[in-house]
């Protein structure tokens, strides 16, 4: 047999700097919207967090859309996505949701901008902080969660074996990553504009929760992926990159976020310090590092999953195992009981 | 468009393939690999009729098949399944004259050919994935890409379980594949590949008629001791093949080796089966994580 045969399935023709990078930006946009919405609806309604969340969300949604349009080659082609709704196609559902989310996030950002320009006592601020702003947050919440997570389902609904095997783990993993990167982006934006330490702490706690979930989903996801032959034959360097992503992109920022979000409470044991801590401006390097690492980890995760898909599609044994409807046991891939293979 | 006046009620396909092309009836290909001689006339006929560009003269170096795969500009591909000893590929200059004559005829040393093409799946994954509605099912039950609608997102390429449809990244950036010669069918002509095939390895016709013909052919071959079976009929289960998830293929094949030898998946899956579970887990995770975030934001923010 010759080894020149092309693989039995093709990979998605996406350049990493367009579509997988969009997965990352979409996650950030969704996560930062959750930060803005929950801060207003459930948190202490710190306007700095809301402001940062709204701006990051619209930037992520717009930036992601631009990447998708660049991938299509010609801008007007994006409009073809809005000809039909197809419930079976995550690509179709995602295009509509991204458009709707972009609209809601754009409206919220416009309100915020009006508030910023007109001042916090203006009528514009009353609209931005009043029920119209709240309604937008509530309306955008499910859209944001969908934008951050559907990309996992989008990969799963393909014929790429390693993705198709992970329909139950990729969407939650991408969602958790979207939330952790979203919180990180908002905390960076807040830091740049000077936010309250207590708000910073709430964001760190949310980031820690998202990162912890991300680690659990990453473990489950890897468990589902590793049963395919391409995973068994993975080059060592690739495994090293994955371990590095897990460690530097999830574990380390998780520890830092836990320290920032919960750690100080221990020092609050001294009542005298409580006031000082609250006054201290948020410039802690740990928080900066946690946010930066979480963001980089989120991008690395999307690229890893994309690359795994490419490897899997280029490994015929993956397709044989996947399309045989059986789990790879190392011996019987694609070999029926009554194999009529000619003797060698 | 007003119906074009036909001078004769006789279709060309009735003369060349003995079939009448009727809208509303499923049409397809029956490709009998035992009859294929690897001449690649179908490839050339397809390229000619559909005005597809040449793909360049690249030699694989390890196979006599230099087409290698279906692509956006290659809609028929005669796959060479070269079952020979490894030495045959490794030693010498690759000159056939250097290979001892007895090795050509040694048991198990054989060449299988399969003229690969879009399977025109009855439940087509590319069609289900397409977000623009560019991919449609025609009145001949074939799967067709409307070029003015396709926006080149490439999702169909990842969805196809057979590596057929492809985005032309070097060309117009849109998805292309076999059209079952939709334009020819409209005018009562059989597809170019089937018409060009000198051995009738590629048969065109209504799927039910093709299936009957294929069943007869399988029986005939089995009587002669050839382990023939059908790949792509929704009812066929031989060799563990199961295309029922795609509800069968309108372009199906007669094979004599396991499907993997021809680069075909044994039981192709329908990618859209993962859409609902994927979105459902996303929704459950969304609820759970929102609750966790809610606690994180709400928690005693005393500090």
Descriptive labels:
heterodimer, A: 344 residues, mainly alpha, B: 303 residues, Alpha-Beta Plaits, 10 helices, 10 strands
Describe this structure in words.
The complex is a heterodimer of chains A (344) and B (303). Chain A is an all-alpha fold and 344 residues long. Helix content of chain A is 73%, strand content 0%. Chain A is globular, with a radius of gyration of 23 Å. Chain A starts with 18 loop residues before the first helix and ends in a 21-residue tail after the last helix. Residues 265-272 and 325-344 of chain A have low confidence and may be disordered. Chain B is α+β, with helices and mostly antiparallel strands and 303 residues long. Chain B has one domain: Alpha-Beta Plaits, CATH 3.30.70. Chain B contains 10 helices and 10 strands. Classes of the chains: A mainly alpha (344), B alpha+beta (303). At the A-B interface, helix 1, helix 3, helix 5, helix 7 and helix 8 of A face strand 2, helix 5, helix 6, strand 6 and helix 10 of B.
Helices and strands in order:
The complex is a heterodimer of chains A (344) and B (303).
Chain A: H1 19-41, H2 47-72, H3 90-118, H4 123-129, H5 131-156, H6 161-164, H7 170-193, H8 197-225, H9 229-232, H10 236-267, H11 271-279, H12 285-313, H13 316-323
Helix pairs in contact in A: 1-2, 1-5, 1-7, 1-12, 2-3, 2-7, 3-4, 3-5, 5-7, 7-8, 7-12, 8-10, 10-12
Chain B: H1 12-16, E1 27-32, H2 41-49, E2 76-83, H3 86-90, H4 101-104, E3 110-117, H5 125-129, E4 135-137, E5 143-145, H6 155-159, E6 166-167, E7 175-176, H7 182-186, H8 192-196, E8 202-206, H9 207-223, E9 229-231, E10 251-255, H10 275-298
Parallel strand pairs in B: 1-10
Antiparallel strand pairs in B: 1-8, 2-3, 4-5, 6-7, 9-10
């Amino acid at each position: 047999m010759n080894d020149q045969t092309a693989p039995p399935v093709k990979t998605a023709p996406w350049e990493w700097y367009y579509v997988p990078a969009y997965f990352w930006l979409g996650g950030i946009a969704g996560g930062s919207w959750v930060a803005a919405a929950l801060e207003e609806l459930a948190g202490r309604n710190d306007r700095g967090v809301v402001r940062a969340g709204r701006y990051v969300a619209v930037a992520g949604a717009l930036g992601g859309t631009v990447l998708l349009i660049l991938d299509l080659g010609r801008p007007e082609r994006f409009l073809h996505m809005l000809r039909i709704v197809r419930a079976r196609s995550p690509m179709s559902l995602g295009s509509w949701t991204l458009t709707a989310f972009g609209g809601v996030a754009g409206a919220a950002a416009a309100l915020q901008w009006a508030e910023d320009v007109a001042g916090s006592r203006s009528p514009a601020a009353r609209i931005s902080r009043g029920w119209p702003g709240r309604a937008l947050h509530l309306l955008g919440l499910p859209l944001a969660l969908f934008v951050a997570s559907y990309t996992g389902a989008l990969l799963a609904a393909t014929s790429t074996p390693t993705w198709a095997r992970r329909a139950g783990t990729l969407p939650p993993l991408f969602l958790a990553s979207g939330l952790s990167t979203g919180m990180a982006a908002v905390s960076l934006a807040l830091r740049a504009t000077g936010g309250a330490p207590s708000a910073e702490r709430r964001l760190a706690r949310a980031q820690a929760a998202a990162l912890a979930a991300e680690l659990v989903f990453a473990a489950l996801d890897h468990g589902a992926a590793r049963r395919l032959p391409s995973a068994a034959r993975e080059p060592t360097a690739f495994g090293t990159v994955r371990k590095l992503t897990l460690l530097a992109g999830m574990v380390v920022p998780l520890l830092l976020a836990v320290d920032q979000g919960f750690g100080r409470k221990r020092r609050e044991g001294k009542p005298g310090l409580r006031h000082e801590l609250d006054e201290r401006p948020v410039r802690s390097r740990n928080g900066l590092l946690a946010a930066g690492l979480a963001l980089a980890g989120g991008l690395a995760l999307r690229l890893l999953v994309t690359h795994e898909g490419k490897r899997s599609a280029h490994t015929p044994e993956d397709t044989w195992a996947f399309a045989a409807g059986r789990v790879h046991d190392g011996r019987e891939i694609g070999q029926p009981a009554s194999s009529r293979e000619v003797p060698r | 468009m007003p119906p074009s006046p036909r001078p004769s009620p006789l279709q060309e396909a009735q003369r060349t393939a003995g079939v009448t092309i009727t809208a509303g009836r499923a049409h397809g290909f029956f490709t009998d690999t035992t009859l294929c001689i690897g001449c690649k006339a179908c490839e050339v006929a397809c390229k000619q009729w559909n005005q597809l560009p040449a793909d360049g003269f690249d030699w694989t170096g390890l196979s006599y098949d230099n087409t290698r795969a279906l692509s956006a500009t290659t809609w028929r591909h005669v796959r060479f399944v070269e079952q020979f000893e490894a030495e045959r590929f490794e030693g010498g200059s690759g000159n056939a004259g250097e290979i001892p004559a007895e090795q050509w005829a040694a048991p198990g040393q054989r060449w299988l050919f399969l003229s690969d093409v879009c399977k025109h799946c009855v439940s087509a994954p590319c069609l289900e994935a397409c977000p623009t509605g560019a991919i449609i099912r025609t009145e001949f039950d074939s799967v067709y890409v409307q070029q003015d609608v396709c926006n080149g997102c490439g999702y169909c390429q990842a969805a196809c379980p057979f590596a057929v449809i492809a985005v032309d990244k070097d060309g117009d950036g849109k998805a292309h594949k076999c059209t079952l010669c939709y334009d020819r069918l409209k005018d009562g002509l059989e597809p170019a590949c089937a018409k060009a095939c000198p051995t009738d390895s590629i048969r065109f016709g209504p799927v039910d008629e093709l299936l009957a013909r294929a069943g007869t052919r399988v029986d005939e071959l089995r009587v002669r001791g050839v382990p023939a079976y059908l790949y792509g009929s929704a009812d066929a289960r031989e060799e563990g093949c199961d295309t029922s998830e795609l509800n069968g293929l309108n372009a199906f094949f007669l094979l004599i080796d396991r499907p993997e030898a021809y680069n075909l998946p044994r039981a192709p899956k329908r990618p859209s089966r993962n859409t609902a579970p994927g979105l459902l887990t996303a929704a459950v995770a969304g609820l759970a994580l929102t609750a966790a975030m809610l606690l994180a934001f709400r928690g005693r923010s005393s500090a």
